[in-house]
Fold:
Amino acid sequence: MTTLILNDRDNVVILTERTKAGTQVVPDGAALAASVSAGHKVARADIAKGDAVFKFGYLIGYATDHIAMGEHVHSHNCAFGDHDTDLPFGAALETAKAAV
Structure:
């Protein structure tokens, strides 16, 4: 199993393949409670309720509950909220290409 992190600011990792329940994705993190599909997020550190969630260096939402390190991050514990939406199209494209 491999994970993807494109920016040091990210507090989640992206699963690159379907991962079975009981798998520990993040060292010292909780094991997954259920299987999680490729492309989904897992917390790489504890995220407090109300804290911002960052993926690929961008704010993608806010924790609606405490999210433990290693826990699946999705619509059950993360929601959209007010944030700066003035991002130029493709602004980080070269950074993303270099990371891949």
